[in-house]
Amino acid sequence: MMRTRAAVLAGMVSAVAAHAQDADALHWSGDLGLGAERTQASAPGASARNWLLPYAYGDLGRLFVREDTFGAKLFPVGWGALEVVGRVSTEGSDGDGPRLAHRRNPRPFGFGTFQETPWGGFFVDAFVDTVSGGKLLEVSYAAELPLGSVRLYPQAGVTYRSASYVAHLYGDASYLPGASTTPELQISGELPLTDNWVLLAHAQYELFDHAIRDSPRVDTNSRASALIVLAWRFK
Question: What is the CATH number of domain 2-234?
Answer without folding.
Answer: 2.40.160
